[in-house]
């Protein structure tokens, strides 16, 4: 009975898959937040190195992974894919459940898949220092690791409430040599202006993005890095799905449905895009994004132009959004609390190629606990959304008495999120349904783009 | 440049290696703490299931790993072996440094290698419930996972200071369905008698062992489980070294020196015993155990009969010991704070087959930080002792201008030990040298065995 499917070294992908040439129609332009006109590559140069700007708009289907990146990927890649025999048995389902596990990276999540190449391209482009933001710390820890490996300095603006309440990932960043600043801070105009109005502000991802962008834009030696949403981040993450496809091929199987959790879109794009490529060539495969009901961007937002951050300093993209000043409640799946979404994923949802569903927090933790007790691995709260989706598909297969092959991405482990499980097991967590009028209110602030 | 050496599935070991037939001379008897006479297998039956008692004294060199155990091992085994190219470069050493990484298990350490078979043998022998103790929680979390997988109940007596200060591993145990009791507790005579004298007692591993042993001995449905020290635990852990040998063979290399950290001896035995087997057949390989200077059992203790626990309820074994009432200071490598040692490892040290060295806390954290910044993986504080040993060997090779192949066991990750790194980076940690007169005092309490 095969449980773990190990990809032989000879089959490690040497290229990322760029979905842009296979998208259903042209990409919407990215709009400059100042001029409200389409951005040029040069507009982005204060924020990103040219190789990443080129990747952002590339129409080349396959992009070589640099040797220097492959060598670091090797520390945890190829990541294992598992057949969840014990979970299947517990569910008494005729479905086969597979999961790709990204928690084996040094940071414990899929984020290093993009942090490593981002640090690499910055290094070869001459960047000396990276400024970035982080919420719960998955991205911050990953980019700290990546900067350490390529000899770059790194400053992370970390949302203050997480800085104080989730100290373990802050400690990881420091261990990997990064400077970690609780945001809002006195280091930037954006931070100072918030602190002037709200000295006790707990911060938000939107504010932290504004601080990091300002830091990068105002220093010649520094560039900005983002851990999700952007096309080049989705590109780097496709290594997940490419490996999973090769692993499926090894065992002569293919998924009927591919599932990922969705926040900004990076892990979802990673597992999904290589299968969507097959779909474009006539393969029958459903692709499902699971998002939290407390931040229902894809299921209750609109497909429109909006700012990437609260302070309206980041570029304006066409995406599903709840409005740039939407404030989701503080759920444990901190990585899924973003008002917007990847423009690529958004376009695919809008075109009906990707299905989107929202799930409640309690149902996700219930799924995560069942998974941990069957399969051993403790999932990150974010990843629990994908597990919920997979279990629901498996239960539906049982009801219908149908065989079905399910693949989901287990994007990270939950070893540093144990307080979330404590709260769940102690009955302290609740579900949350966002009031329609509040979403309507934040959606009334979208920018006008011609 | 090959970084990760992946063992093909076909080469996963199907048997554990039992070192007993290859030991230098007969084993010393194990003594009953009540009668002070050698124990019989029947004496041990209230505590252990017969298959484990048989393994404890087996003279069969190879012991089959049950299929049910292999299927669960598959979740993280074969564990990867890495070549530490970046660390070698940072050290500018001519030595090659390899490390076997056991942090990929669901509990994040090597402990499930024995927890899974222990739960399995208890299950087939009819045990319904396991009672055990844990210090920092590595063992407690692993046996909780194992009991969950085989449908056994599990009660873990957790040293109270860790219960309060290291809540993440307690949460893991609860997530995997175990009952976790801060020790000393009101559940046992041993616990009640401590609490009567010291109501505010923080507990110790010795007390927690006494509570778990009493719990198991006084309930028909319950047996005891120990995560280190015993022969059958060392046996199960040999899967580590057997895999490492196969991985070395794959790349046509062989270590000049094999290094493990040493507390009770289980991870050390795991990496070392299969190489010691080669040594017995004339192979040139040094085998080195690294222990903390604050609990210097192998380097400053005596080789003598002593109790396994503080309350003198556990069997008496011939081993290196600092005395059963020795109280090591509270260091972050909680898993290495044991007054005794594996009798097998002790005999090998005494015979000069295994070298033992002690290292100070600060030098270990320095090594761990350098390792994390080069290789990415954040080591458990226990494992940092092995890293220190490996780096010292590599620096010596550099000094001597000699090539050398070094293999060490990275027994676990440090994701739930980040406060230790915080304390180190903040300069809050100190070294500690135990006063000779205090060791002399605790050694004056050894039992008399004819």
TrEMBL record, chains A, B:
The UniProt record lists the keyword Amino-acid biosynthesis: yes
Gene of this entry: trpB
Pathway: Amino-acid biosynthesis; L-tryptophan biosynthesis; L-tryptophan from chorismate: step 5/5
Entry-linked CDD domains: Trp-synth_B
Keyword set, alphabetical order: Amino-acid biosynthesis, Aromatic amino acid biosynthesis, Lyase, Pyridoxal phosphate, Tryptophan biosynthesis
Classification via Pfam families: PALP
One GO MF term attached to the UniProt entry: L-serine hydro-lyase (adding indole, L-tryptophan-forming) activity
Record keyword Amino-acid biosynthesis present: yes
Names of required cofactors: pyridoxal 5'-phosphate
Assembly with partners or alone: Tetramer of two alpha and two beta chains.
Residues annotated as domain Tryptophan synthase beta chain-like PALP: 74-412
The organism's place on the tree of life at top rank: Bacteria
Family of the protein in this entry: Belongs to the TrpB family.
Lineage: Bacteria, Pseudomonadati, Thermodesulfobacteriota, Desulfuromonadia, Geobacterales
Record's catalysed reaction(s): (1S,2R)-1-C-(indol-3-yl)glycerol 3-phosphate + L-serine = D-glyceraldehyde 3-phosphate + L-tryptophan + H2O
Modified residues (N6-(pyridoxal phosphate)lysine): 111
InterPro entries for the chain: Trp_synth_b-like, Trp_synth_b_CS, Trp_synth_beta, Trp_synth_beta/beta-like, TrpB-like_PALP, TrpB-like_PALP_sf
Annotated function: The beta subunit is responsible for the synthesis of L-tryptophan from indole and L-serine.
Descriptive protein name: Tryptophan synthase beta chain
GO cellular component: cytoplasm
């Amino acid at each position: 009975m095969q449980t773990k499917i190990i990809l032989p070294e000879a089959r490690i992908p040497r290229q990322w898959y760029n979905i842009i040439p296979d998208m259903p129609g042209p990409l919407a332009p990215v709009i400059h937040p100042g001029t409200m006109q389409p951005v040029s590559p040069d507009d982005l140069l204060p924020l990103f190195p040219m190789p990443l700007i080129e990747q952002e708009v590339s129409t080349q289907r396959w992009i070589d992974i640099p040797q220097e990146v492959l060598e670091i990927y090797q520390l945890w890649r190829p990541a294992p894919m598992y057949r969840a025999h014990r979970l299947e048995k517990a569910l008494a389902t005729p479905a086969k459940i597979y999961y790709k596990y990204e928690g084996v990276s040094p940071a414990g999540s899929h984020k290093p898949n993009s942090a490593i190449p981002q640090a690499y391209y910055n290094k070869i482009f001459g960047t000396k220092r990276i400024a970035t933001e982080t919420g719960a710390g998955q991205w911050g820890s990953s980019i700290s690791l990546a900067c350490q490996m390529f000899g770059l300095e790194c400053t992370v603006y970390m949302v203050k409430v997480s800085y104080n309440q989730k100290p373990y990932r802050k400690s990881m960043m420091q261990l990997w040599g990064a400077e970690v600043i609780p945001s809002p801070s006195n280091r930037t105009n954006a931070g100072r202006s918030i602190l002037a109005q709200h000295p006790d502000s707990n911060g938000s991802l939107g504010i932290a993005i504004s601080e990091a962008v300002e830091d990068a834009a105002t220093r010649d030696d520094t560039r900005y890095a983002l851990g999700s949403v952007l096309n080049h981040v989705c590109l780097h993450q496709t290594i997940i799905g490419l490996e999973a496809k090769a692993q499926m091929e090894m065992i002569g199987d293919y998924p009927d449905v591919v599932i990922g959790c969705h926040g900004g879109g990076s892990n979802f794009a990673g597992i999904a895009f290589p299968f969507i490529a097959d779909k474009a060539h006539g393969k029958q495969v459903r692709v499902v994004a699971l998002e939290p009901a407390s931040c229902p961007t894809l299921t209750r937002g609109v497909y429109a132009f909006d700012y990437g951050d609260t302070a309206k300093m980041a570029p304006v993209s066409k995406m599903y959004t709840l409005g740039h000043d939407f404030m989701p409640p503080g759920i444990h799946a901190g990585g899924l609390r973003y008002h917007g979404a990847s423009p690529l994923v958004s376009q695919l949802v809008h075109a009906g190629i990707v299905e989107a569903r929202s799930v409640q927090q309690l149902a996700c933790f219930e799924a995560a606990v069942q998974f941990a007790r069957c399969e051993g691995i403790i999932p990150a709260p974010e990843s629990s959304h994908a597990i919920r989706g997979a279990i629901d598909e498996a239960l539906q297969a049982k009801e219908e008495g149908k065989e079905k092959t399910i693949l989901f991405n287990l994007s990270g482990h939950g070893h540093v999120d144990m307080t979330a499980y404590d709260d769940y097991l102690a009955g302290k967590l609740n579900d949350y349904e966002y009031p329609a009028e509040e979403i309507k209110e934040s959606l009334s602030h979208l920018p006008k783009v011609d």
